[in-house]
Design a protein that fits this description.
Rossmann fold, single chain, Ubiquitin-like (UB roll), 241 residues
Protein backbone atom coordinates (compact mmCIF):
# COMPACT_ATOMS: atom_id res chain seq x y z
CA UNK A 1 0.00 0.00 0.00
CA UNK A 2 2.76 2.38 0.93
CA UNK A 3 4.65 1.48 -2.28
CA UNK A 4 1.61 2.31 -4.42
CA UNK A 5 1.14 5.61 -2.61
CA UNK A 6 4.80 6.42 -3.14
CA UNK A 7 4.50 5.76 -6.89
CA UNK A 8 1.41 7.93 -7.15
CA UNK A 9 3.13 10.78 -5.40
CA UNK A 10 6.20 10.44 -7.60
CA UNK A 11 4.12 10.52 -10.77
CA UNK A 12 2.21 13.54 -9.45
CA UNK A 13 5.48 15.32 -8.71
CA UNK A 14 6.80 14.63 -12.22
CA UNK A 15 3.58 15.95 -13.75
CA UNK A 16 3.74 19.03 -11.54
CA UNK A 17 7.28 19.76 -12.70
CA UNK A 18 6.36 19.21 -16.34
CA UNK A 19 3.29 21.39 -16.01
CA UNK A 20 5.37 24.31 -14.75
CA UNK A 21 7.87 23.79 -17.57
CA UNK A 22 5.10 23.80 -20.15
CA UNK A 23 3.59 26.93 -18.63
CA UNK A 24 6.99 28.66 -18.59
CA UNK A 25 7.57 27.71 -22.22
CA UNK A 26 4.12 28.99 -23.14
CA UNK A 27 4.82 32.31 -21.40
CA UNK A 28 8.12 32.65 -23.29
CA UNK A 29 6.40 31.93 -26.61
CA UNK A 30 3.64 34.44 -25.88
CA UNK A 31 6.12 37.12 -24.85
CA UNK A 32 8.16 36.49 -27.97
CA UNK A 33 5.08 36.72 -30.16
CA UNK A 34 4.00 39.94 -28.43
CA UNK A 35 7.47 41.44 -28.88
CA UNK A 36 7.46 40.52 -32.56
CA UNK A 37 4.02 42.06 -33.11
CA UNK A 38 4.98 45.18 -31.16
CA UNK A 39 8.47 45.83 -32.53
CA UNK A 40 8.86 44.11 -35.89
CA UNK A 41 5.52 43.51 -37.64
CA UNK A 42 3.15 46.03 -39.20
CA UNK A 43 0.17 44.72 -37.21
CA UNK A 44 0.56 47.74 -34.92
CA UNK A 45 2.17 49.90 -37.59
CA UNK A 46 1.60 53.55 -38.49
CA UNK A 47 -1.44 54.05 -40.70
CA UNK A 48 -2.82 57.47 -39.80
CA UNK A 49 -1.00 60.73 -39.02
CA UNK A 50 -3.03 63.67 -37.69
CA UNK A 51 -1.76 67.25 -37.48
CA UNK A 52 -3.29 69.49 -34.81
CA UNK A 53 -2.84 73.10 -33.76
CA UNK A 54 -1.92 74.72 -37.08
CA UNK A 55 -3.30 78.19 -37.80
CA UNK A 56 -1.30 79.73 -40.65
CA UNK A 57 0.36 76.52 -41.81
CA UNK A 58 -1.40 73.78 -43.74
CA UNK A 59 -1.40 70.23 -42.32
CA UNK A 60 0.16 69.05 -45.59
CA UNK A 61 3.18 71.32 -44.97
CA UNK A 62 3.75 69.73 -41.58
CA UNK A 63 3.30 66.20 -42.92
CA UNK A 64 5.77 66.87 -45.73
CA UNK A 65 8.62 67.69 -43.35
CA UNK A 66 7.60 65.32 -40.54
CA UNK A 67 8.11 62.30 -42.82
CA UNK A 68 6.41 59.84 -40.48
CA UNK A 69 7.13 56.40 -42.03
CA UNK A 70 3.86 54.64 -42.85
CA UNK A 71 3.83 51.00 -41.78
CA UNK A 72 6.64 51.33 -39.26
CA UNK A 73 5.79 49.71 -35.90
CA UNK A 74 4.51 52.40 -33.55
CA UNK A 75 6.78 51.18 -30.77
CA UNK A 76 9.85 51.86 -32.93
CA UNK A 77 8.80 55.30 -34.13
CA UNK A 78 11.44 57.90 -33.23
CA UNK A 79 9.15 60.72 -32.10
CA UNK A 80 12.10 62.95 -31.22
CA UNK A 81 13.44 62.78 -34.77
CA UNK A 82 10.02 63.73 -36.16
CA UNK A 83 9.85 66.71 -33.78
CA UNK A 84 13.32 67.89 -34.81
CA UNK A 85 12.46 67.74 -38.51
CA UNK A 86 9.36 69.85 -37.99
CA UNK A 87 10.97 72.57 -35.84
CA UNK A 88 14.13 72.76 -37.95
CA UNK A 89 12.36 73.02 -41.30
CA UNK A 90 9.34 75.13 -40.36
CA UNK A 91 10.39 78.42 -38.71
CA UNK A 92 6.77 79.24 -37.90
CA UNK A 93 6.62 76.34 -35.44
CA UNK A 94 7.48 77.28 -31.86
CA UNK A 95 7.00 73.83 -30.33
CA UNK A 96 5.81 70.44 -31.51
CA UNK A 97 4.86 67.27 -29.66
CA UNK A 98 4.63 63.94 -31.46
CA UNK A 99 2.83 61.12 -29.67
CA UNK A 100 1.58 57.64 -30.47
CA UNK A 101 -2.16 57.07 -30.72
CA UNK A 102 -2.55 53.30 -30.46
CA UNK A 103 -3.13 51.09 -32.29
CA UNK A 104 -2.28 52.77 -35.62
CA UNK A 105 -2.17 56.55 -35.19
CA UNK A 106 0.37 59.32 -34.73
CA UNK A 107 -0.58 62.82 -33.55
CA UNK A 108 1.62 65.80 -34.43
CA UNK A 109 0.57 68.63 -32.09
CA UNK A 110 1.94 71.97 -33.29
CA UNK A 111 2.13 75.35 -31.57
CA UNK A 112 2.87 78.10 -34.05
CA UNK A 113 4.75 81.29 -33.32
CA UNK A 114 2.60 84.40 -32.95
CA UNK A 115 3.80 87.65 -34.50
CA UNK A 116 3.98 90.63 -32.12
CA UNK A 117 5.94 93.17 -34.23
CA UNK A 118 7.36 93.61 -37.68
CA UNK A 119 10.56 95.16 -38.97
CA UNK A 120 12.05 95.94 -42.34
CA UNK A 121 15.29 94.07 -43.01
CA UNK A 122 17.05 94.89 -46.30
CA UNK A 123 13.68 95.76 -47.80
CA UNK A 124 11.99 92.59 -46.55
CA UNK A 125 9.15 92.84 -44.05
CA UNK A 126 9.73 90.28 -41.31
CA UNK A 127 7.50 89.31 -38.39
CA UNK A 128 8.95 88.54 -34.96
CA UNK A 129 7.41 86.60 -32.09
CA UNK A 130 7.56 87.32 -28.35
CA UNK A 131 11.02 85.73 -28.13
CA UNK A 132 12.36 87.99 -30.84
CA UNK A 133 12.55 85.22 -33.44
CA UNK A 134 12.02 86.37 -37.03
CA UNK A 135 9.94 83.57 -38.50
CA UNK A 136 7.79 84.94 -41.31
CA UNK A 137 7.91 87.43 -44.18
CA UNK A 138 5.14 89.60 -45.61
CA UNK A 139 4.77 91.21 -49.01
CA UNK A 140 3.56 94.39 -47.29
CA UNK A 141 3.53 95.84 -43.78
CA UNK A 142 0.83 94.13 -41.66
CA UNK A 143 -1.68 96.68 -40.40
CA UNK A 144 -2.41 94.84 -37.15
CA UNK A 145 1.22 94.84 -35.93
CA UNK A 146 3.53 97.61 -34.73
CA UNK A 147 6.78 98.38 -36.50
CA UNK A 148 10.21 98.22 -34.87
CA UNK A 149 12.94 100.45 -36.29
CA UNK A 150 16.62 100.45 -35.39
CA UNK A 151 19.72 102.44 -36.22
CA UNK A 152 22.01 99.69 -34.95
CA UNK A 153 24.91 98.90 -37.26
CA UNK A 154 25.97 95.34 -37.86
CA UNK A 155 23.60 92.45 -38.43
CA UNK A 156 24.09 90.85 -35.01
CA UNK A 157 23.62 94.12 -33.09
CA UNK A 158 20.51 94.97 -35.06
CA UNK A 159 18.97 91.54 -34.50
CA UNK A 160 19.61 91.78 -30.76
CA UNK A 161 18.07 95.25 -30.60
CA UNK A 162 14.98 94.29 -32.61
CA UNK A 163 14.54 91.06 -30.63
CA UNK A 164 14.67 93.05 -27.38
CA UNK A 165 11.97 95.39 -28.69
CA UNK A 166 9.77 92.42 -29.56
CA UNK A 167 10.16 91.01 -26.05
CA UNK A 168 9.32 94.36 -24.46
CA UNK A 169 6.24 94.89 -26.59
CA UNK A 170 5.00 91.34 -25.97
CA UNK A 171 5.32 91.86 -22.20
CA UNK A 172 3.53 95.21 -22.35
CA UNK A 173 0.72 93.79 -24.49
CA UNK A 174 0.20 90.88 -22.11
CA UNK A 175 0.55 92.71 -18.80
CA UNK A 176 -0.49 96.30 -19.56
CA UNK A 177 -2.99 96.27 -22.45
CA UNK A 178 -4.03 99.90 -21.89
CA UNK A 179 -0.44 101.06 -22.26
CA UNK A 180 -0.05 98.86 -25.33
CA UNK A 181 -3.02 100.60 -26.96
CA UNK A 182 -1.15 103.88 -26.51
CA UNK A 183 1.95 102.69 -28.41
CA UNK A 184 2.32 103.84 -32.00
CA UNK A 185 5.76 102.46 -32.89
CA UNK A 186 8.91 101.08 -31.31
CA UNK A 187 12.56 102.02 -31.73
CA UNK A 188 15.51 99.99 -30.52
CA UNK A 189 19.01 101.27 -31.25
CA UNK A 190 20.59 98.72 -28.90
CA UNK A 191 19.30 95.89 -26.75
CA UNK A 192 19.37 98.23 -23.74
CA UNK A 193 17.73 101.19 -25.48
CA UNK A 194 14.17 100.24 -26.40
CA UNK A 195 11.82 103.22 -26.79
CA UNK A 196 8.05 103.15 -27.16
CA UNK A 197 6.64 106.03 -29.17
CA UNK A 198 3.26 106.92 -27.67
CA UNK A 199 0.35 109.04 -28.80
CA UNK A 200 0.57 112.83 -28.58
CA UNK A 201 4.27 112.79 -29.45
CA UNK A 202 5.41 111.25 -26.17
CA UNK A 203 8.33 108.83 -25.80
CA UNK A 204 8.63 106.10 -23.16
CA UNK A 205 12.26 105.09 -22.70
CA UNK A 206 12.02 101.46 -21.60
CA UNK A 207 15.64 100.40 -21.79
CA UNK A 208 16.30 96.64 -21.79
CA UNK A 209 13.67 93.87 -21.57
CA UNK A 210 14.68 93.30 -17.93
CA UNK A 211 12.81 94.43 -14.78
CA UNK A 212 9.43 94.53 -16.50
CA UNK A 213 7.46 94.25 -13.26
CA UNK A 214 9.27 97.18 -11.65
CA UNK A 215 8.90 99.32 -14.77
CA UNK A 216 5.19 98.66 -15.05
CA UNK A 217 4.78 99.55 -11.40
CA UNK A 218 6.06 103.12 -11.92
CA UNK A 219 4.98 103.86 -15.49
CA UNK A 220 1.32 104.59 -14.72
CA UNK A 221 2.17 107.26 -12.16
CA UNK A 222 4.86 108.70 -14.40
CA UNK A 223 2.57 109.08 -17.41
CA UNK A 224 0.21 111.22 -15.33
CA UNK A 225 2.89 113.92 -15.38
CA UNK A 226 3.06 116.45 -18.21
CA UNK A 227 6.21 115.68 -20.20
CA UNK A 228 7.52 114.58 -23.58
CA UNK A 229 9.98 111.90 -22.47
CA UNK A 230 9.35 109.36 -19.71
CA UNK A 231 12.33 107.25 -18.72
CA UNK A 232 11.80 104.00 -16.76
CA UNK A 233 14.99 102.29 -17.94
CA UNK A 234 16.16 102.50 -14.31
CA UNK A 235 12.83 101.90 -12.53
CA UNK A 236 14.20 102.83 -9.10
CA UNK A 237 14.97 106.34 -10.37
CA UNK A 238 12.47 107.18 -13.15
CA UNK A 239 12.71 110.60 -14.80
CA UNK A 240 10.75 112.89 -17.11
CA UNK A 241 11.81 115.72 -19.37
Amino acid sequence: MSQRLFEQRRRAGRWQRWRWRVLALLVVVLLGAAAYVLWFSDVLGVRDVEVRGVTTLEPAQVLAVAKVPTGEPLARLDTGAVERRVTEQLPRVATVEVRRDWPHGVVVDVTERVAVVWTRDDGTVRALDAEGVAFRTFTRAPKDLLEVTSTATGERSRRRAVAAAAQVLADVKRRAPELYQDVRSVRADTRDDVRLELRRGRTLVWGSPDQTTAKLRVVDRLLDLRAKVYDVSAPDTPTTS
